[in-house]
Design goal:
Elements: E1 4-15, E2 18-29, E3 33-37, H1 44-51, E4 59-64, E5 67-68, H2 74-84, E6 85-89, H3 100-105, H4 116-129, H5 145-156, E7 163-167, H6 175-190, E8 194-198, E9 210-215, E10 218-221
Parallel strand pairs: 3-8, 3-9, 6-7, 7-8
Antiparallel strand pairs: 1-2, 1-4, 4-5, 9-10
């Protein structure tokens, strides 16, 4: 078995006295693409936030790269997240006053291992990796939705995380751009990293090593 990047053990989450889910167990291994499906309101985004240690469960345990978050401080959790995980969201979350390359450089400013020239070179290489070699100086409003999502993916890769977690990454895109994003995720996995995708889009199953469905608070492998 490949080394686990994320382990979820008996996760339970409650909102307004209602169980969103309970007893969720999942192992995310290196070098694979995972997809999680479910109806709107099933708790998919909540689960992704727990797996990405952006939120904490009401009970259970999340382990990232061998480290349990149960007894870590907020600062320690943030450090663990920054060292191991990258995130992609449906709405891109780009800074509209920054160019594509500046947006990709943002996570590198808090990385002491990079000088400015190295940050710029790293960001440029990542934009090439996602097919935006001639778009470095463009602002978000000068790019298409698919291009902005590719900038967001490049930014998520900036600190070389072990795992990318993507929440409805193609939800606002047309079919051609959907396919581009899925191919990029496939390439990321082929490079040895891991991708977890939350999506309504059934097409991601064609690219996935493992598919799960979240239904009535229960996570099942398909």
């Amino acid at each position: 078995m490949a080394n686990p990047i994320i382990e979820a053990k008996n996760l339970k989450k409650i909102f307004n006295s209602l169980n969103v889910f309970q007893d969720i167990n999942l192992i995310i291994e290196s070098g694979k693409l995972y997809s999680i499906h479910g109806k709107s309101g099933a708790g998919k985004s909540t689960l992704l936030h727990l797996l990405g240690i952006l939120d904490t469960p009401d009970s259970g345990e999340v382990i990232v790269n061998g480290t349990s978050i149960n007894h870590l401080s907020t600062k320690e959790i943030a450090l663990l997240r920054g060292e191991n995980l990258g995130f992609v969201f449906q709405s891109y979350h780009l800074n509209n006053k920054m160019t594509a390359i500046e947006n990709v450089m943002l996570p590198l400013y808090i990385n002491p291992n990079y000088q400015y020239e190295e940050m710029e070179e790293r960001a440029s290489d990542l934009l090439k990796e996602v097919g935006l070699v001639n778009k470095e100086k463009h602002f978000p409003n000068e790019l298409s939705g698919g291009e902005n999502q590719r900038v967001a993916i490049a930014r998520a890769l900036a600190n070389n995380p072990e795992c990318i977690l993507a929440d409805e990454p193609t939800g606002s895109l047309d079919e051609d751009n959907e396919n581009n994003i899925f191919e990029i995720f496939k390439n990321i996995v082929e490079s040895g990293r891991t991708v977890v995708v939350i999506s309504h889009n059934e097409k991601i199953k064609n690219y996935s090593d493992a598919c799960y469905i979240l239904d009535n608070g229960v996570l099942k492998e398909e």
